[in-house]
Amino acid sequence: MRLLRRYAFRLIGLAILGWFSGLLAPAYAQVDEETFQQLEFNFIPPGARATAMGGAFIGLADDATAAQTNPAGLLVLLRPEVAFEAKFLNYDIPRLASRDSLFTFEPTTFGANVGSPAFVSFVFPGKNRRWTVALFRHEFIRLKDEFTFDPRETPYYIYFPVEGRVEFKGEQYGLALAVRLGALDVGVAGKLARMKVQSFIRRDFCKPIKFRPCGNPFVANVEALDDTDTGFGFTVGLMWRPSSKFQVGLVGEINPTFQWKDDTLSAELPDGGLIPLDTIEPRLGIPHRFGGGFAFRPTDQFVLTADVVWLQYSRILPQDVQLLYAYDSPRASAPENFYVRDRVEVHGGGEYVFFVGSTTVALRAGAFVFPERRIHYRKPQGTFPGDDFFEAEADAFERLYNGLEDKTRVGVAGGVGFVFQNRLQVDVAYSWSKPVKQFSGSAVLRF
Fold it and tell me: Quick one: pLDDT band at residue 114, thresholds 50, 70, 90?
């Protein structure tokens, strides 16, 4: 009986939604795109030192953050040490939010500021530098966005006004081991990952019509998700040092896919009560990472480093996962029509070290390529007899997901570090790109 009531309420709600939008135009409204529509995921490597050098660290990997970036680099550490890093992030996320934005494709910038302890580790080198072990915690994503949308128009649709917020927090706890095998250093890290998502979207049915009573028994649709999932991943790294001036690193990282259980869509009544309409189980995969890099030391005081990384961003949106709650055309909104492109990122930077009395000072700078990684839409080919809503819905999806320009941006970074009495190291870094600004601070204590 409860199941019958649930589907009855859902059908009534969707019917009323279609009827009410028909007062405005021959329009039909989707009920769940906004969270992921223009959201650019940013999976940030750890370390203020690496950040200052443009994120290039696979081929250098000579501090405690190597446990995550390239665990083979841990063998260069000679003494036990504890490392800590804090990050502060500012996100500028473009969204098509104004009333005519699905015609003009002029974005409005949203986003938020977040700060967190991003990395902590303990490194213990073995005797004779034949092995090193490290325990670490790494926050691989901390993303927050808050947004409001006007009622937006397309040739066939009017999307109701929306307010929403979303926050992702992903962290992993790992154990890394590096060993020396002849001329080659090999490192492996096993990780338990945990991903928490909090999302809220409210779509108001009444605001599009001015100077009229609402006339709808449901005043809004509300979608809410607050759930956590765990999974396992691992990283394998190699480091080859043919000379004291040159070294090469390779890394491969396999990451888990997370699934949340309680993404619930409800109808809001005038008295504030909620009637559940449907529940889906969204999934999100963390991109696998494969890359290589080098470090070159022309002098003892100067190092140049660069790396190239392939990131399987297509894992963000598994193809067997329902993205939308409700649809008019199952063919237009089929999961395989939505995709994220895999990307190649390039990072490069340098470090110059000098001495002021007994204090070591390091100046760092770098640059990096920052490709977009949004969800896009691929319109199915052919005609679909009997599917009266296909063209209207496919056109709306193309505008929503493909309306922003596909840009590959360049970011820059810089920072400074200090080492006091060869025991305490303090580093700060700032990284700038149009989508993300980041300030990092870290400290290392050697025993």
Answer: very high
